[in-house]
């Protein structure tokens, strides 16, 4: 074996003849040996990081016990294997003292040649295995710390085992993570709740704000034979995603505003034209009854303009907090904005609603949701057909809420695109659509803790699409 590849052994013994014999035996077994006769010499030579140090207990300046303790307490040399030897200190207490000082093995003179070689080789194997384990642990920790998501491992008692750098960075400087510290208390001070820890045995996911940042936290149960059931906590900084979603929502609302503006323009221009004509007729007539009739009809047309204006304002001005909403009335207002463009396509909008279907929510957002769905249904419906809208109060499990179905008798949605229908920027309208309408609608429905789904059929006599929205009566 090339000398550079031979395992390096440092022999520290105050007797030269002992050093000579040990070196001869180990050299013949393939080891590269260096020697010193003092404790200080051993400490200095240990800085070269040999593989193994054979250390006599009795040294002229410092005892072998103290030399071993210093070597093991120095992070640079702590991984070096130390085999203590002695001709004088041979009792069990001497062995215990050496091992407690950090020695990895202990032999007493006379030392059998084969026992010495076997012991040194065993310590070398142990050191090699420990080095491999340290390298694997360092690689694992480097990978752990390189993740952009914050990860923390929690034991079955709810205490922190370990965490990565991102977890500490996302948590921020105001809270300190301590190994063995209570994760529930940490999360309560950080998020105001310890729900992820309480939800043992179940997956948990929620969004919180930490300062100006939006953070998604998820908790997943993990099983360990030694520690029982613990959890892995994941913190994900979703601030950029939230900003992007807000930008998309704003863009879609602007697009929806343009589409509604077109419908509103028709709803306003027609009655204004009628008002102009009626005023002209009134000014041209000398009959008091006719004048009164013309002005009365003009007043009705102006009231119609006022209603349309209020409906459009409800779309733009939303409350900061959820308020009580009559779902049927809200959808009736939405339908009134689309009746004229629907009529131009020879499509009839039919509303069937129960009374007193009330929920708590944001009317402007829901106007946007149902405006998208009614417009899509109107554009998809075949000329001469009907779009039916139904509003019902139902119970779904323990939840009471409004179910709104919008059914068109159009060509149906191709199966190849159904899985993509709620994806942002996906559209079946070529350049006419932004691809954000249904994505925004689902986002706003989920914000109301509701659900949106659809079913669609294609084929002669049975084609069409139905969208169903469920909105719970109250927000939790």
If you had to describe this structure to a student in words, what would you say it looks like?
The longest helix has 46 residues, at 239-284. The mean pLDDT is 83. Helix 9 (239-284) packs antiparallel against helix 10 (288-316) and helix 11 (327-344) packs parallel to helix 12. The strands form four sheets. Strands 2-1-3-4-5 form a five-stranded parallel sheet, with helices on both faces. It has a five-stranded antiparallel sheet with strand order 7-6-10-9-8, sandwiched between helices. It has a five-stranded mixed sheet with strand order 12-14-15-17-16. It is rod-shaped, with a radius of gyration of 40 Å. The chain has three domains: 3-143, 3-Layer(aba) Sandwich (Rossmann fold); 147-237, 2-Layer Sandwich (Beta-Lactamase); 243-472, Histidine kinase-like ATPase, C-terminal domain (Heat Shock Protein 90, 2-Layer Sandwich). Helix content is 45%, strand content 24%. It has 476 residues and is of the alpha/beta class. The chain has helices at residues 16-28, 39-46, 64-73, 92-100, 113-146, 165-171, 183-191, 195-198, 239-284, 288-316, 327-344, 363-380, 437-447, and strands spanning 8-12, 32-36, 52-56, 81-86, 105-108, 150-154, 160-163, 204-210, 213-224, 228-237, 323-326, 348-353, 358-361, 386-396, 399-408, 451-457, 464-472.
